[in-house]
Each structure stands twice: as C-alpha cells, then as structure tokens.
Design goal:
The structure is a single chain. The protein has 459 residues and is mostly helical. It has one domain: Up-down Bundle (Amino acid/polyamine transporter I), CATH 1.20.1740.10. It contains 20 helices and two strands. The chain has a two-stranded antiparallel ribbon with strand order 1-2. The longest helix is centred in the N-terminal third of the chain and has 32 residues. The radius of gyration is 22 Å and the shape is globular. The two termini are 16 Å apart. The relative contact order is 0.20.
C-alpha cells in the first residue's frame, strides 16, 4: 500500500534540454518587451542608456540563473523556492512562499496574462463581440467577453497540461519556436524598412556620466528587470527534467542569453523607428514601431504576434505553478489530494485544476491586479532570500560532487543579491503601504502551516 501511495505522488523525468530551454524562453518573453521601453524611455537621455539598462537586466537574470541553477541541482525535485527556503531556513518560510504563490502570485499572474491574451484575441473580432457584457442577478460580478475568453484559454491550457507533460511541453515548444521566428522576422523586416532612420542613434553617448544620469538608469532598470523575470520557471519543474545536474544550468544559461539577444535586437528596431524623445511615455511602443515601419494596417499582425508570445508565457506559468502546490502537498503541508499524480498521464492533475478554479474566481471578481500589486515586494523578498540560501547551504557543508556550482562564486551571486537588495529597497520606498499589505497576506498563512503540521503529526 505504501509503495502504491509513493507511485501516486511520483513525477517522471521526461523534459529534454530543448524542452527546458523553450520552457524558460516562453516564460520570459511576454507583453513586457512591447511596453517597457516606451514606459521608461523618459529616464534615458541617449541610446547608450537604453542598451545599458537592457544589458544590465540580462546580467541580473544571468547571475540569478546561476544561483538558482545550483540550488535546483541541490534539490532536483518539484517545488523550487519552496524547497530552497525550507531547507536553508525553516519549513515555515518555505510554506509561506508556497502559500503566497497559491493564494496570489501564480493564479494572479495567470489571470493577468489571460486577460492580456483575451484583449488582443478579441481585437480580431467585430466591436459588438468585444464589448459584450452579461450581468448575473445576485452575484458580485458581471460576465464580459474578455473574462469569458480569459477563463476559456486558462481552461484549455489546464486541460492540455493535465493530459501529460509531453502534451504541455509539446505545445510550449511549438508556440515558442513560432514566437522566436516571428520576432526575428519583425527585427529583420524592421531594420530594412526605409521608414526608419539610423540617425536616431546619434548622439549615442551622453555628454557626461554624472550621478543623476546613472540614477535615472537605475529607475529604468526596475521595469527591465521585471521584463526579464521568468527565468526561475525551470526550478519548479526540476523533478521532471532529464539529467537535471547537466540540463538545468545549461538550459537556464542558454535561455537567458537567447532572450537577452532578442531584447537587444527588438530595442534596436524601436530606436531605428523613432528617437528616444518620441518614445517617452508611449506604453504601446511595439505597436507604434510597427505602424511607423510597416504602415497603418498592422493591428492584426501585431495582435497575432502578442497572442503567440502570451500563449507560451501562460502555458509555462500554468504548468509550473501547479508543481509548487504539489510539492507542498507531497510533504503534507497542503491539501493531500493535490499531491495525487494522474495514474495514466503522470502529472499533478488535481493541483492543475485547483489552480484553475482559484484563477477563475480571481478573474470573475477582478481582484487579481490589486493582489499582485500587494505582493511585488514579497516576490522580490523571497527571491532575495533564495539567493542568500545559497551562501547558507555552502557554509553548512561542502557541495555534493554531482551538482552544478554557480559560475563566478561568490562574485556572480553577490551581483544578484546586490541588485535584489536595491529592488527590494526601491519597492519598499515607492510602495510602502502595498508592501506592508503584501507581507500581511503572506503572514496570514502561518495559522494554516501549524494546522497542517498538526494534521501531519496526528497522521
């Protein structure tokens, strides 16, 4: 009976190195690359600043990837930060990370991405369909076409991933490869368009590098860093990666490098289309660039490009989030049924559908944006604690011989921690109320931790 129970909670390693790379790239590249540059252009006086912040974001992502790669090869199982924090500090801290991912972070992110997908998907339809609203008597929400499409795509991808890891990974590989090809086509066609101007790159350097200039670069770096976020996705599904000690660090390094190259090329197209002064404050910089270089009738193509990018990010988020709750449940720190593995498809189907249910509720109530705002500080805090965990684990014992050791230790991890500290302080300074609310939401999980611990002992 115990053997059957173990098999019912056992994942299978079937993700190849290519699968792992596509999972990370798809999770990193989303709508952000089409909005961030315009939003933060006001802080960048010359093209040099533009490239500095995007390369700075790449350095942050790569240094973080090296930290997480070592942690993931130390604990090559599903769960990611939940495992790292539990083992480096205390199971309570790991649980609070998992609690925040289930209650807010992952369902909220899925809801946000799904709403973005629905918005661009409905651009392909007549206005009467886009503006459809249905009010239900006696319920605190209304059904709109955007909400219905958002819930529908989350359902489809949840069902797809519940049919087996190969099903979800195969879809991920297809949309990511397609997305990369579309982005490269956008870059190539953009740079040969006669509507652009290479004179937009002049003057490339600022007149001087004073403290004010560097400080403004730092402000712009905040948004760039979040646009690079997503490289941690692989650590949550580490239990399903073949030869994790080799494939996880390789995939994380290659994926971050590939995304950095794409981001630099896309920003080059933006700058070729218009000078920095014209980009300032334009959140739809991707669409504006396409209109300048290719003409007015590009809305459909832009929507399709966004849809492809969003699908890969949405799919990887759905797939990875469910593994965190599964890892908690496998250690009896969450609802036990969540640890069950589908006997045929060998995936945590119960965890996937529980995540879908909670995400659907957030979409219907429309509260996910507020919740995510409250947890920005918490997300950065947990990421920082995971970085410190590497130093704690190394200090306690010699690393096992078969794990990946972070390149450039301790310098590279210190770079990651330094930028993380700065992001944490900046978030706390600019959003003190939201940060305190976010921490309070996380701390609300403490009674549940001790409740599950009590049940664990009684069993």
């Amino acid at each position: 009976m115990k053997e059957n129970s173990r098999q019912n909670t056992q994942l299978q390693r079937s993700l190849s190195r290519f699968d792992a790379i596509m999972m990370i790239v798809g999770n990193m590249v989303g709508i952000g690359i089409f909005t961030t540059t315009g939003y933060y252009a006001q802080y960048l006086a010359t093209p040099l600043g533009l490239y500095v912040v995007w390369l700075g974001g790449a350095i942050y992502a790569f240094s973080g990837a090296m930290v997480y790669a070592e942690l993931a090869t130390r604990f090559p199982r599903a769960g990611g930060d939940y495992l790292f924090l539990s083992n480096a500090y205390h199971p309570l801290l790991g649980f609070l990370f998992g609690w925040s991912t289930f209650t807010v972070t992952y369902p909220g992110s899925i809801a946000t991405i799904a709403i973005g997908f629905a918005y661009y998907f409905l651009q392909l339809f007549p206005p009467e369909i886009k503006e459809w609203v249905f009010h239900l008597p006696g319920v605190p929400f209304s059904l709109t076409s955007i909400k219905l499409v958002a819930i529908g795509i989350v359902f489809v991808l949840t069902w797809l991933n519940s049919r087996g890891l190969r099903s979800g990974a195969g879809f991920q590989n297809f949309v990511v490869v397609l997305g990369i090809l579309v982005l490269l086509a956008f870059v190539a066609m953009g740079l040969i368009s006669p509507q652009g101007e290479w004179g937009n790159f002049v003057p490339f350097f600022p007149e001087g590098l004073d403290f004010q200039t560097i400080s403004l670069w730092g402000v712009a770096l905040i948004g760039v860093v979040f646009t690079y976020s997503g490289w941690t996705v692989l650590v949550y599904i580490a239990g399903e990666v073949k030869a994790p000690q080799k494939n996880i660090p390789y995939a994380m390094g290659v994926a971050v490098l590939l995304v950095a190259i794409l981001y630099v090329l896309i920003n080059t197209v933006y700058l070729y289309a218009q000078p920095l002064t014209q980009m300032s404050g334009d959140v739809e910089i991707g669409y504006l660039t396409m209109r300048i270089l290719f003409g007015e009738n590009t809305g459909t193509f832009f929507s399709i490009m966004i849809i492809i990018m969003v699908l890969s990010s949405l799919n990887s988020t759905i797939l990875s989030g469910a593994r965190i709750y599964y890892a908690m449940a496998a250690e009896n720190r969450f609802f036990r049924f969540v640890a069950h593995i589908h006997p045929k498809f060998r995936v945590p189907a119960n965890s996937l559908w529980l995540q879908f249910g909670w995400t659907t509720l957030l979409i219907l109530l429309g509260t996910f944006n507020q919740l995510l705002t409250y947890t920005v500080f918490v997300m950065v805090l947990f990421s920082l604690l995971a970085g410190i965990a590497l130093f704690l684990l190394r200090r306690r014992s010699q690393p096992p011989e078969n794990i990946f050791l972070a390149w450039g230790y301790p310098v590279v991890p210190v770079i990651y921690l330094g930028i993380s500290f700065w992001l944490l302080g900046n978030t706390l300074y600019h959003r003190p109320v939201e940060s305190v609310i976010g921490v309070s939401l996380v701390l609300a999980g403490i009674p549940f931790y001790y409740w599950w611990e009590k049940k664990k002992k009684n069993n």
